[in-house]
Design a protein that fits this description.
Layout: H1 5-9, H2 27-37, H3 45-80, H4 89-136, H5 138-157, H6 159-168, H7 172-178, H8 185-193
Helix pairs in contact: 3-4
Length: 194
Amino acid sequence: MRVQNEALSHEPEHGNQKAAPPHHPCPRCRYNTRASSTSTAFNNSPERDRARTTLRTRTAARRDAEQQLARSQAALNQQLTRHWPRRDKTAINQATTTLDTARQHLTNTRNNENSTRQHLADLDQHQHTRATALAATATERHALSHDIGQLDGALRLTRVERVLKLAEHPTQLHLDILGPVPAGPAGRAVWCHQ
């Protein structure tokens, strides 16, 4: 039932805006629009944390694969060092297959580790670029925050005056939503409060 006071005044405050205006003559605002649209505006710290965790997991998997390969190679060597007729052809074939599987597994784990390591390096580079950009624009961003704070403060200070002025000359939109302004003080106060 309640309608925002900003709707009565047709002057929405900064926090209630749905989207930034397409153009503003202020150079700082134009800069802010450009900066927010670049990829460096994105903070990828959570993704970097996940990448570090993944890298640790894949590094451990690669080490396990190296150990498995060493065990498979040792098992095959043991079979091959036996002399005839003690050699077990079936065991040698199984050990060879196990060794080939271990080599392939090690290759896969190394590829996974290298891919994750490169991904983490890319994320680190992105974050470094972002930090550099933020440091370079800190003064302008702080000035923009100050300007926005002043604008919000001015809107708060003039809200009552704007609503009372609108009550004296309501637009058709507000009449359609709230109805006519009551003549009595109590009704008028309730109308302005909605």
